[in-house]
């Protein structure tokens, strides 16, 4: 786009002393380059020896040497191009002051009046269009950023990089400023020199900024730390790091890993080529201290290293704890099946396996049962001797070693016998007339299933046991109808099809008793100003053990602590020492040898005062408990003057009297009688007493006890092959008592017999294990409280099986990277994991000519890629993958494409679009950095039509060039392109990076010329050297190039050669001479417009001959005076001096009598001769001039008249 011209000048008025020099520099900005025109008083300025006008690329200069008053006046400068024009006016005054020989100065000449005031203009800056895009340079190169600026007053210039001001005068970065120009030069660039450079200009008129982005292609920085080291074992560790923050302008190809023992100074290479940002290091020496370091590598080399902290190679874990005690089953005459549970702690490392050991009961040496390490927690041990007792134990092993052995278990190897004694016989609960016991199945079931148990009891005074239950199918039993206070022994015998086994007996006698219930009614009487008398009734029973005493406690209102007042064996006590006016609470508890009963409270506080008229309720207990079906009596004694009226409410409503519910009230008490209590009689009762002195009320809580309702919401939460998890909600009705436990039973759907799972479940969930895979089961649950067991709640039938299946086949199996020794394959997860997380993959390979697949990995592969190292160079391989979950190994996926074990070549790089038309796109690219060990033989160009299409091949012939024009495209459509290389080994590279979306249309960009900085100044060369002007050109369509010299076309014949490509043009002049000096203009043109750049060249050569004629004057017999004019061409430099030679014609000799700068010379020493006989005396004048530190001379002969 064209830019309108602008002239920038700091001052518009110049006053100079006559005889001095004046230079006026004006900054010119515009594109294309403006035409400059100087005028004085409306007339074009004519250049003279004293007045010179010089026009450069962005500057025009008026130079007045030894100015006089005639040079004063109004000058105007006009800059114009196709975008417009700009004009500025300048006033120049030369003042003259005269001085005579006496040293007296005259009055200065007249001067114009100037108003001294500040002209404020905001700063403006202009920068070459090439800096508007990112500047890309190689490391070690130098880049220069230039800008012209203007402003009044003169702006302050500051260069910033990444937001921070650049210090001036640093060794690498140099900033030079003039009044209209600033230059930033960065030498020996590295990647840290890349970034965003900002030129900031500020004065009182404002601030303006221009930014330039610079990208330095260099080696990458160090990886982003920290370098994390995770110790796996004493020989292995994992390294993890992050990519470098600065990649040096190119993608990271791989990383280098090195290690060093801290006791050494040399580094050892661990992995020279790793593309991931993590690595597993092996073969470490236990106990050694190591340091690792990582360096990133791109195509420009390896960057700085990132070091880790020192660490010691040692195991981060310990051996596992002991497994559970092995459990025996399926005992035969020479074998036994043992099972066990995992250790509680794996020591921090996964369990690798188990070791099972045995020894004879009378032996001392343990021997291994398994030759190989066991991965399962079940083993069948064979080769046992019938009738022998054996001990077995299990040891777990992880990466740290073998852990502690489990507790041993005894096995008596015998064939089909009665069972051993049940284990863990315990007394669970003791009541006043019942005892609940539980046990576990015997360790030895005699080779057959336990059918039931026999429960027996005997009193301590007797020697014989009596049977309580002869067919108990659960592992617990409640023994009722025992005598209170008696001592009993209990035993349990397991029974199988071969008869009863050994009994298990309680170690000590159990006394049938319990803590007593709370005392009965509490009565308050004889209240005085400091004492009161309490009396109470005995509990309903003593719990099977004699009441030893009663504990009386008291509490002051507002205090939260109960204070023990006394222990009394009587049923009353007098409490002294109370404070008049205070209120007290009292409660009484019964004590026997089984413990203390719940306290019975006197709910209403006792006010220590005499004769209260307000009704007082003497309710000693506000809670009444009764079993369903029994009668309930609520007795509320009271006092009041006058006699209060009594009202009974239940749950906020007036209590209705029926045939079951009656209310009786006397002068001192009110009673409620309820016959055959039901669950609906439970609730909160309120008694309200009212008289003239006030109203008093009390709440009474009635609990009706019975067995609970069934549990609710019984559901199967989880089903597996050998267990089922059940959950349920507590009963909606608890029977007035807390649920003590739940009873869970199961049955095979083919049987009508329910088997006990557990009768002591405390929570509302259970995991039923030891199920048979494939069997259909039904489960039921009942709740139990102290008053009985609820009805059962049953589940639907459930089949014991895994809730998932093996996973599907992996997809998209392909070879990511192939070489002559290594292949990396990758794949996608299966579409279905079968309902269980995938625990690993199995990799198989085969030669293309083989039909047998070979497994590659020893253990399941966790990630979705695998590195195959055991390949043979030249063979063609195929790979297939299958996934595994807890249900097993799934089917294999579709095999990968056949890939040869050869080194792959790199992908082509730097793919770019060079031209776009309405039917074609021109591409170019660079060869691969690595050809895979074989010559690149062809390229394949592919395209894809966006948004939804597939990649299509563009070239159908062998393409050897690194450029290609894709034709027959649809106008207006968007395409992406990529290139693949192929080498002589028939190996294809990975596709290159795509070009990004390209729209097929006439892409018109006006032409741009980019010249090197040196061509903005006058280009000076020596005569005979090569004059070369280079320029980068850009434009779409490709522009046409024209070269002009001093406004005329340049002929390319002889010494002149013009070269032009799509992006570059150059003018080459060989063996330059003085006439090659001048202004060369480069013009480029396309349908988007035209632009030009001018370059001024000067060829330094020897000067031309002095201007003639050579005049001779002042002749005498011994001397003459010579005069001549300066040469018309000075060879590009000022004439230093002249050389005068003479030659006598007769002896043909020459002599240099004198060399002097003036243009006249008096030559002495001439011979006096007669004119007629005087020979012709030719004289030569030689002029010398400097040319690039050398003197070159040219001689021109001028004839001197004969009359000299």
UniProtKB/TrEMBL annotation:
Domain of life where this protein originates: Eukaryota
Keyword Coiled coil: no
PROSITE patterns in the record: FN3, IG_LIKE
Alphabetical keyword list: Immunoglobulin domain, Repeat
GO biological process, one term: cardiac muscle tissue development
Pfam families reported in the protein's UniProt record: fn3 (PF00041), I-set (PF07679)
Domain Fibronectin type-III stretches: 223-316, 322-418, 421-515, 518-611, 710-803, 809-906, 907-1003
GO cellular component labels: M band
InterPro entries documented for this protein: FN3_dom, FN3_sf, Ig-like_dom, Ig-like_dom_sf, Ig-like_fold, Ig_I-set, Ig_sub, Ig_sub2
Molecular function terms from GO: structural constituent of muscle
Domain annotation Ig-like: ranges: 5-91, 123-215, 615-703, 1006-1096
Keyword Nucleotide-binding: no
Gene3D superfamilies according to UniProt: Immunoglobulins
Name of the protein this chain belongs to: Titin
Natural source organism: Xiphophorus couchianus (Monterrey platyfish)
């Amino acid at each position: 786009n064209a830019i309108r011209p602008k002239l920038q000048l700091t001052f518009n008025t110049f006053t100079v002393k006559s005889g001095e020099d004046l230079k006026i520099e004006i900054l010119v900005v515009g594109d294309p380059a403006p035409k400059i025109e100087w005028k004085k008083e409306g007339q074009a300025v004519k250049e003279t020896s004293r007045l010179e006008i010089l026009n450069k690329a962005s500057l025009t200069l008026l130079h007045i040497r030894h100015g006089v008053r005639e040079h004063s006046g109004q000058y105007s400068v006009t800059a114009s191009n196709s975008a417009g024009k700009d004009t500025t006016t300048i006033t120049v005054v030369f003042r003259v002051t005269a001085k005579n020989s006496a040293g007296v100065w005259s009055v200065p000449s007249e001067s114009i009046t100037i108003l001294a005031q500040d002209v404020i203009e905001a700063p403006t800056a202009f920068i070459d269009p090439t800096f508007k895009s990112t500047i890309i340079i190689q490391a070690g190169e130098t880049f220069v950023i230039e800008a012209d600026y203007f402003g009044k007053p003169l702006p302050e210039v500051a260069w910033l990089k990444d937001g921070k001001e650049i210090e001036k005068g640093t060794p690498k970065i140099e900033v030079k400023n003039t009044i209209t120009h600033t230059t930033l030069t960065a030498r020996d660039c590295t990647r840290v020199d890349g970034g965003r450079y900002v030129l900031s200009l500020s004065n009182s008129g404002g601030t303006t900024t221009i930014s330039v982005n610079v990208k330095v292609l260099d080696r990458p920085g160090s990886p982003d730390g920290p370098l994390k080291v995770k110790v796996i074992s004493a020989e292995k560790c994992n390294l993890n790091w992050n990519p470098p923050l600065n990649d040096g302008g190119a993608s990271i190809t791989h990383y280098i890993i090195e290690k060093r023992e801290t006791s050494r100074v040399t580094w050892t290479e661990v992995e020279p080529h790793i593309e991931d940002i993590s690595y597993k290091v092996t073969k470490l020496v236990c106990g050694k201290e190591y340091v690792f370091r990582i360096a990133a590598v791109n195509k420009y080399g390896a960057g700085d290293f990132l070091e880790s902290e020192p660490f010691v190679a040692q195991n981060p874990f310990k051996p596992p704890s002991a497994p559970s005690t092995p459990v025996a089953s399926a005992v035969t005459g020479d074998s036994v099946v043992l099972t066990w549970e995992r250790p509680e702690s794996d020591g921090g490392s996964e369990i690798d396996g188990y070791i099972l050991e045995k020894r004879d009961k009378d032996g001392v040496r343990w021997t291994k049962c398994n030759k190989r390490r066991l991965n399962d927690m079940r083993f069948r041990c064979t080769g046992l001797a019938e009738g022998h007792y054996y001990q077995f134990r299990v040891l777990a092993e992880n990466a740290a070693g073998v852990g502690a052995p489990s507790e041993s278990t005894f096995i008596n190897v015998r064939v089909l016998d009665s069972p051993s004694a049940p284990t863990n016989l315990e007394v669970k609960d003791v009541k006043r007339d019942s005892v609940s016991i539980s046990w576990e199945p015997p360790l030895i079931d005699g080779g057959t299933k336990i059918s039931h148990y026999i429960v027996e009891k005997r009193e301590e005074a007797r020697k014989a046991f009596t049977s309580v239950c002869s067919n108990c199918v659960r592992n617990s039993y409640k023994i009722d109808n025992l005598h209170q206070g008696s001592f009993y022994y209990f035993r349990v015998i397991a029974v199988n099809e071969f008869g009863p086994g050994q009994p298990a007996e309680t170690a000590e006698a159990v006394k049938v008793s319990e803590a007593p219930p709370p005392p009965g009614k509490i009565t308050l009487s004889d209240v005085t100003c400091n004492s009161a008398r309490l009396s109470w009734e005995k509990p309903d029973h003593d719990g099977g053990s004699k009441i030893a005493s009663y504990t009386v406690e008291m509490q002051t209102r507002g205090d939260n602590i109960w204070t023990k007042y006394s222990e009394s064996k009587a049923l009353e006590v007098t409490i002294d020492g109370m404070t008049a006016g205070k209120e007290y609470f009292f409660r009484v508890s019964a004590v026997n040898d089984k413990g203390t009963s719940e306290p019975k409270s006197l709910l209403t506080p006792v006010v220590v005062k005499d004769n209260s008229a307000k009704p007082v309720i003497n309710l000693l207990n506000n809670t009444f408990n009764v079993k369903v079906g029994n009668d309930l009596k609520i007795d509320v004694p009271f006092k009041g003057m006058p006699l209060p009226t009594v009202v009974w409410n239940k749950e906020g409503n007036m209590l209705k009297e029926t045939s079951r519910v009656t209310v009786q009230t006397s002068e001192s008490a009110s009673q409620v009688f309820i016959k055959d209590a039901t669950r609906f009689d439970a609730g909160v009762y309120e008694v309200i007493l009212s008289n003239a002195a006030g109203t008093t009320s009390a709440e009474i809580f009635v609990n009706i006890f019975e067995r609970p309702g069934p549990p609710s919401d019984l559901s199967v939460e989880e089903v597996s092959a050998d267990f089922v998890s059940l959950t349920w909600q507590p009963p909606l009705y608890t029977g007035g008592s807390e649920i003590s436990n739940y009873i869970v039973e199961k049955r095979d759907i083919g049987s009508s017999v329910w088997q006990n799972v557990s009768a002591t479940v405390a929570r509302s969930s259970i995991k039923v294990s030891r199920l048979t895979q494939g069997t259909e089961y039904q489960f039921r649950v009942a709740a139990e409280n102290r008053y009985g067991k609820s009805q059962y709640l049953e589940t639907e039938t459930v089949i014991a099986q895994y809730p998932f299946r093996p996973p599907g086949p992996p997809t998209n199996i392909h070879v990511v990277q192939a070489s002559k020794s290594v292949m990396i394959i990758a794949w996608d997860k299966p579409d279905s994991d079968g309902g269980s997380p995938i625990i690993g993959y199995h990799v198989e390979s085969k030669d293309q000519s083989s039909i047998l697949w070979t497994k590659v990995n020893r253990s399941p592969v966790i990630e979705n890629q695998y590195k195959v190292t055991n390949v043979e160079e030249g063979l063609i391989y195929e790979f297939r993958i299958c996934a595994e979950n807890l249900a097993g190994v799934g089917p294999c996926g579709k095999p990968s494409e056949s890939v040869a074990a050869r080194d792959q070549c790199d992908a082509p790089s730097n793919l770019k679009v060079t031209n776009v038309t309405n039917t074609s796109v021109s591409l170019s690219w660079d060869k691969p950095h690595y050809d895979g060990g074989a010559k690149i033989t062809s390229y394949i160009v592919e395209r894809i039509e966006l948004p939804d299409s597939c990649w299509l091949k563009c070239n159908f012939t062998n393409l050897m060039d690194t450029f290609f024009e894709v034709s027959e495209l649809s106008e207006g459509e968007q395409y992406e392109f990529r290139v693949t290389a192929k080498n002589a080994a028939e190996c294809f590279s990975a596709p290159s990076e795509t070009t990004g979306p390209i729209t097929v249309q006439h892409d018109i960009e006006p032409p741009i010329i980019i010249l090197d900085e040196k061509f903005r100044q006058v280009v000076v060369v020596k005569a005979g050297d090569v004059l070369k002007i280079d320029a980068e050109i850009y434009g779409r369509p490709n522009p046409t190039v024209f070269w002009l010299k001093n406004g005329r076309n340049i002929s390319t014949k002889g010494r002149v050669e013009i070269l032009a490509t799509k992006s570059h043009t150059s003018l080459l002049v060989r063996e330059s001479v003085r006439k090659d000096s001048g202004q060369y203009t480069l013009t480029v043109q396309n349908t988007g417009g035209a632009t030009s750049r001018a370059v001024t060249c000067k060829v330094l050569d020897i000067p031309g001959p002095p201007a003639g004629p050579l005049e001779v004057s002042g002749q005498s017999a011994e001397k003459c005076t010579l005069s001549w004019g300066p040469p018309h061409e000075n060879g590009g430099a000022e004439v230093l001096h002249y050389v005068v030679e003479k030659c006598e014609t007769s002896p043909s000799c020459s002599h240099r009598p004198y060399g002097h700068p003036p243009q006249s010379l008096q030559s002495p020493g001439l011979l006096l001769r007669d004119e007629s006989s005087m020979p012709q005396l030719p004289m030569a004048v030689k002029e010398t001039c400097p040319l690039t530190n050398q003197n070159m001379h040219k001689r021109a002969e001028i004839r001197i008249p004969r009359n000299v």
